[in-house]
Fold each of these.
Amino acid sequence: MTTAPEKNSRVHDLLAAVLGGMAALLLATSPWNVDTEGPDPFYKGPLIFPLIVLSMMTLAAIPAWVRLLRPPQDSTWHLDGRGLPVKTAVVLGLLIAALMGLVVIGLEASCAGFLVVALYYLGRRGWVQLVVMPVVVTLLIVVVFKYLLGIFFPTPLIMDWMGG
């Protein structure tokens, strides 16, 4: 029988703070890490996606930094469960597969497939969570990245294989 997650584990905060710190460091050095030469405007250039993702990671780590500096009364350094973040590792594997799927099956199918499989694996069984949420999130991602930002995505390999 598995135990309930430790609500005030400082281990989670430490990991989040470390990841957020690394994201902040990469965010600060990203203009030197990404080649920005080219005719595209800033919002279509290769630096925009790292800036968005690293900013979100840094902002998401702020609560962990605050909790590390001012820990709650009942906080411990205990890791929940058996100490193995199995669900997190599986979702990370699904995300890596989805990134590879971008090349093979395209943005829309990869994004929707990742969301459906990950939500199902995490125990979300309602039709709203397994149908509506993936469709809405996929549409938002396509509209923002393809049409608003004009970011180029290559033709999926499956289209080449099928002769299209």
Amino acid sequence: MASQFAPDASGSTKRPDLISILGILGFINTGLFLIIYGLGIPMMAGLQQMPLEEVQALVDESMSMSLPQEQLDEVYGIVDVMHASGVALILILFARTVVRLVGIIGLWKGRRWGFMVYALAQIAGIFLPHLVLPWSMMGFFGPFMALAMTAAYYSQYKRLT
């Protein structure tokens, strides 16, 4: 079978080690999160069927002993968002993960379109959840990791065909 990667400086056309490592990590990550989000969709649908006051009472019962009131107020804000839009959020995250997986498969096979799909999913995945979530919930680590992984794959772009 002919290699699907462009030759490196020494003429080797085997899959670059970095793509192998990132690909394996990506397959593990997307597989895990497809399961989590797949289970999360019906869970969020069930949560939305409950009255908001009942959901807040459950949170209060389980967390009031361990959190100070100001942090509990932040948790209530998250609960309100999840109750109102949790299914939409999980569907966005599920779709982003599927698109990332398609991109990783393309990269694993040495295709430039794989990078384009992966990069689109990573960059869109930073912003699309905020169709549902308030911007104040944007973290630093998640977007940083998304951009770092995209940059790591991009470092191998010249090897893709």
Amino acid sequence: MKAVTITEKIKFILEPKLLGINARLFVTREDGITIYDSVQNNTTTSVAALVSGVWQASEALMNLVHDQNEVMDFRLGFDTSSQGIYLFPFELSGKRYFLGAIYNNCLNPGQLKRQISLIKVEMETIFINDPLPQKIIMSSRQGYLFQDISDVEIDRLFSLGGI
């Protein structure tokens, strides 16, 4: 059975919701890499990088007045009554991601923000119940590929003349 990637899981969660939400939905990693974007075009990479940067800048400003440990409780909105951007941080397998919506000509931004908030909760719930597999890291070496090789032979191997 093939393992499902985080991108496939997020796409499975978000795709059905696109019909009921009149906004561009996206998920980015904390480092600005796109995980999902409902609008795949030449702005996809820029959106992810800018979202990461604006969140980190906002977080740095908030550190001046607020405890860092509660940053996951925040959301970021930059909007007017009908257009804007809305971001939520969330955590999957110990890593931070951002769920966001970019909207224009929205009749009820409050409803849209509520829908985004519910999607965030649903994603966290799904990933808590079915977490991402952890990478296996070998902690100790079991042996050597070549046990009886000298430093001189290694030097000859990597010299310009070869063996």
Amino acid sequence: MLDLETALAILEAALLDADARLSTTIGDRYEVTTARLWRGQVLVDWEPDAQAGDCLLRPDLLRRLAGLHAQVRIAGEEVLLHAPGRIVAALSSDHAALVRRLGGARRIELALRLRFVGNVYAGGEETYSLIERGRRVPLLRLVADVKVRTPHTASPRTSPAPR
């Protein structure tokens, strides 16, 4: 049975060698980016990007969410996290600035769904919503589709192996 620590260990393993397709929707704007997950880093155009993928590719942020008492629920092969704005603002200075720009902690919430297939991280969805008159209005939605590389799917060597 999946638990949060096992799920995060599986996510960390995926960050060692995988490919990710990141889809971002902000209002009516839609953007797709590809990223290489390599040795714990997220690389966009082969450069480390500390923000690409946000919580979906950052086990440290997910651990911090849980430590700050975000609601965590396991449903089969999915981990669901839900955090009000005050928890989102406590994640990092970047998250605090985002919450301020969007109208404050009482108006924002974060919902995450992490998907696993067997013992492999497949990606997930991250949605920041604005709370307006008791309704949730999605502001930003990030979807990560992750394909872990195996020895069979790894890139071929371009030079002979050292002897």
